[in-house]
Amino acid sequence: MRIFLISGISGSGKSVALNVLEDAGFYCVDNLPPSLLLQLIDTLARDGIDNVAVAIDARSSSSMGGLINSMHLLKSRGHQLDLLFLTAKTDSLIARFSETRRSHPLSHRLLPGQNPNDPRTLIECIHIERKLLSDIEVLAAVIDTSGLKANQLRIWIKDLVKIERSSITILFESFAFKVGVPLNADLVFDVRTIPNPHYDVNLRPLTGKDLPVKLFLEDQEEAQEMLGDISSFIEKWLPSFKYDNRSYLTICIGCTGGQHRSVYFVEQLAERFKATEQVIIRHREIQ
């Protein structure tokens, strides 16, 4: 059975992800207590269901500790299990809760040590939720949905669904430093020292996927040297990430605007590694 576990911070888009998986033919269950996960999978397996998506969030924090053990047990039984974690910057989450006028799920839940006469603020709920979910976040494929439109999130989820993993999947993502470093980054490389095609009026409206920009950067000795260094670094340390039982490795390449240099580097690195690894490409700013 293929199992997608979806978790993350409230307001980060878990319902969007679950809807995408449901449209892709997955049997979907929302807000399942982790203690019931094994029972659910056994029941659905007997019913002949092959694809299951389960959303688990901090409202089930009392049984969250057993989730990791359940995941290991499911894998040992031969199930293909993917853990997806959605997150976003705090200011983005606050804006979303303000727009929808919904309360945070933890604002209604009394946690150990809390005074029932002392309600939490939204920011406090978000901080508590991040702490409660921190142990499973490090095991997951993480998507930072800050500033991300729902349609783009749907596309990224579909990319993950298409992946049939044998070991590790490398996610190469370009971004703009002026917007901020993606929260989901495992490795970050800064290519802002490379000559910028932005200052060529003919190249400015193009991206690093366009041939004139590619030719421009291929002609820059420092760009090719840095590309080789980054590639060598990944090749050297990728076995260590695999040995650490990582399912996903997110490598983010940043430049000033996220349009030319970082896009070019992501495309080139993905081309180098796709022959031997499963690769996903993301361009945060131009998508």
Automatic annotation (TrEMBL):
Pfam family of the protein (one): RapZ-like_N
Domain RapZ C-terminal as annotated: residue spans: 169-286
Domain of life: Bacteria
InterPro entries xref list: P-loop_NTPase, RapZ-like, RapZ-like_N, RapZ_C
An example Gene Ontology molecular-function term: ATP binding
Residues annotated to bind ATP: G8, I9, S10, G11, S12, G13, K14, S15
Domain RapZ-like N-terminal: 1-159
Keyword GTP-binding: yes
Name assigned to this protein: RNase adapter RapZ
Species of provenance: Sapientia aquatica
Gene transcribed to yield this protein: rapZ
